[in-house]
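Dear Dr. L.,

I hope this message finds you well. Following up on our conversation about the binding site, I have prepared a predicted three-dimensional model of the protein together with pyridoxal-5'-phosphate. For your records, I am including the exact sequence and ligand specification that went into the calculation, followed by the structure tokens. Please feel free to forward this to your student if that is useful.
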Amino acid sequence: MDHAATTFMKPEVLAAMAPYFSRYFGNPSSFYRFARESRKGVEEARGAVGAALGASTDEIFFTAGGSEADNWAIKGVALANRERGDHIITSAIEHHAVLHTCEWLEKQGFSVTYLPVDEFGRVDPGDVEDAITDKTILVSVMMANNEIGTVQPVAEIGKVAHDHGVLFHTDAVQAIGAVPIDVDAMGIDLLSLSGHKFYGPKGTGALYIRRGTRVENLVHGGGQERGRRAGTENVPGIVGLGRAIALATADIEGHNRRIAGMRDRLVRGVLDAIPDARANGHPTERLANNANFSFRYVEGESILLLLDARGICASTGSACSSGSSEPSHVLLAIGLSHEEAHGSLRLTLGDANTEEDVDHLLEVLPDVIGRLRQISPLTPISARMPEAD
Amino acid sequence: MDHAATTFMKPEVLAAMAPYFSRYFGNPSSFYRFARESRKGVEEARGAVGAALGASTDEIFFTAGGSEADNWAIKGVALANRERGDHIITSAIEHHAVLHTCEWLEKQGFSVTYLPVDEFGRVDPGDVEDAITDKTILVSVMMANNEIGTVQPVAEIGKVAHDHGVLFHTDAVQAIGAVPIDVDAMGIDLLSLSGHKFYGPKGTGALYIRRGTRVENLVHGGGQERGRRAGTENVPGIVGLGRAIALATADIEGHNRRIAGMRDRLVRGVLDAIPDARANGHPTERLANNANFSFRYVEGESILLLLDARGICASTGSACSSGSSEPSHVLLAIGLSHEEAHGSLRLTLGDANTEEDVDHLLEVLPDVIGRLRQISPLTPISARMPEAD
Amino acid sequence: MYTEKVMEEITNPQNVGEIADADAVGEVGSPACGDIMRIYLKVEGDRITDARFRTFGCGAAIASSSMATRMIRGMSLAEAWAVSNADVVEALGALPLAKVHCSVLARDAIRAAINDCRTRRGLEPWEVRSSGCDGETGHGPGPENG
Amino acid sequence: MYTEKVMEEITNPQNVGEIADADAVGEVGSPACGDIMRIYLKVEGDRITDARFRTFGCGAAIASSSMATRMIRGMSLAEAWAVSNADVVEALGALPLAKVHCSVLARDAIRAAINDCRTRRGLEPWEVRSSGCDGETGHGPGPENG
Ligand SMILES: Cc1ncc(COP(=O)(O)O)c(C=O)c1O
Ligand SMILES: Cc1ncc(COP(=O)(O)O)c(C=O)c1O
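The resulting structure of the complex is given below.
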């Protein structure tokens, strides 16, 4: 139940890639007819990505993943438009690929506004408008959050940005296949996506760049991707990404209906069975597959470990690995205390999950939380199970 | 005969990758036991790359290819060491991934020396020494040239750099499996490589960074690659890269012997059969698989096309695709005239080539050159075949 | 990169060679540019009765010269002058965008040959600006409008 | 990430709980840090006869507390004071580098409990500097050298 971290690759995707490993292995930038199949594979994939976003084929540029796309979009716009302004607006709950890129730009002399979010994790388009100055060159707000699943009012934010002549980038890594996207209707100038979040290959991604948008290159060198992203094309990866995005966006509504049904039963079941628990994120404006909880008195990593021992993969916003175990910036931004933020659990459903998985989780999780609360010094006596030995 | 452009993937490599697409699809940065196989696959590959370079495992960082590795090495060193100096030394015959990166740094205020090469394409280590100033922070000279195959005196250049306390980066994209590498003996601080040049997967690469070397990140975000290269790891790709480099470096000498035998017969055959032709690059200090020719009076692309029509893939330094058809910067740097540079042909042999391929080439090429010379207005009457119609 | 039709024109170009007693020769390009086109004409009265070429250059340059000479055979000089680079591309079916400048070279070579013919006959050359390496040309007024 | 042995200690921690009439309690960490360890001791004369813990924290914190309480049962106070974080890691077999600070927390919790015991008995606490969130601790002189 950790599909937001990465997904398995669908058999159809691997099947689409297979011929390009060894049979059509040509370098698509090569010249001879032998390379034609590679070129065709890449261009068909480009078409599939364009179609999924309501964009033209020539506005799609392949990258090695979501992080590269985010870095490229933000640094690229910043460096190419420096003489127009040095101010960037983003939100406090972006992925680190956006936040750390913005921090790097601050070191290069740019100034960045990190907008707050409400208790559900939503950015207020009015805040975006208020933050815009005549130095603002870019607004970057993600389409859907990877931890708490909150979907942002992207179209409104896009409109605000455009009303002020400011470019709008959105990290849609978690949104592909979950939110119907139309870059024109949503006022999006740049959009990042990553293949392995929708049953495509790892190490593949794409950046949509609206025609005419000034963006400096991130990777300099050969003339690949029409001179904008150097490096021999990862042909099988690109082909797989194309196939995966076509599959993922074929029936977003039907997919969401099925997944949200399971997710809602899971959330209700957890909150019914476990006291002192809360569901994080927005009640309705959220990804269909995402459930995020805070369980008081316990710490997230230990929840994961005990779930793992019972065969359930999950994720937590508490990243106790750096020594100074930082709680999730997203959970703090929606107003959770450090303790609550440390005790978070993210469950994200995917195509492989069934109702039986939900049953299993509902069977296991209350026990796991109960055992950890028994260990914890924070647990009030009232919330403690009878002592074991 | 264009193995320097890209190679097919060996069946062993695909076989090594296969389980990581759908079975061990875990995110190696995830926590649970399920992700352990992914982590193990990545770390074994890191070990294989380290072993191939005489480096430690913790000095290897995976990238999406050679271009990214070059960009990262050069921008990373430049930006991280700016307060120590702003001068970079490279050569005139580097790959565009190095040259365009240096040009970008010039726009950011760095100064770059582009060292000349001799008629064989070699950089003189003495020139490197003369170019070093107290502002110099980096020397970047490629290990082997992708067009003319010349192998540089890397160890001497590394020594000069280190004698002056300057970091040394080498683009070894063409050298893996062809030149035995020992980063310590050669005084290399950073080294770029790319998987698809040695029968590994496209869209994979690595940067070796000597322990303690100050390098700024190129892709900011998550903590992957020990916090130095963000982005979910391309697990199957990395595993394939590891397998490929182990295979490619298992018997470099034997491989070179076999390939150079064919190559030498090819070069002799071509020069014997075709007048007004020259072999470019160094007579002995060159990649075993590389042959590069200039044929006077004809243009490279048209050679490729006629070869292609006869089933032979090749490459040319004449890139007549930009409108302002630029001849190869490498061929101009070794002193060829524009006309000679335009009439170049690169043939690069690989594991799939046989003596029959050489026979076929020797049968076809003289006719192709003859026909083009008949069309060309530059061909002297003496060098022309009898008029056709 | 090239269509089958263009490849056919490249592998089997028509009208290759010189005309020993040509009435006109036009040459454009340079070795530095990577393209040289030379067109030879036989002109009887106002009519082109033979056209041949020699070209140093890429596939598109060869195909464009071949096609251009095929097109102008039998045309009057004014008709040949009116042949645009788009006409050459159309006759070839298609050229990659980056190669369109080769069709411009072909047009320029035709015009250079026509003006050579006019000059040899003691007539004013029609106005033309020659193209640089980048294939950009000013459109001098053709005979239609000047 | 964790070895089987450490996972066993996490899924089946020993000595969880409180000692109702404890002779000493030591607590380190804070909710903001993401780790709290509380160790309860029963001390007869100079000897630790029972040790229990409650921990809020990651797997390594739970495993370290469990192992630490197992180690110090039956030790004298001076012996228990001398238990280093490296001893805890060794007893666990191994901890990931990023988790070593949890073993430091366990050592600090033991020492805090021992000093609580000494204070209750009217003795000077042995010198110790408490660790911050980052798990760095000054090494106060133990009983051996103070
Ligand atoms: C010498 C050299 N450096 C860098 C590169 C770039 O590698 P990649 O295409 O994998 O990014 C290449 C290959 O194109 C190369 O030959
Ligand atoms: C919202 C978001 N942005 C960016 C990324 C980075 O994508 P990748 O790991 O493919 O570089 C992720 C996934 O980790 C994500 O969830």
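In brief: The longest strand of chain C covers residues 35-44.

With kind regards,
A. P.
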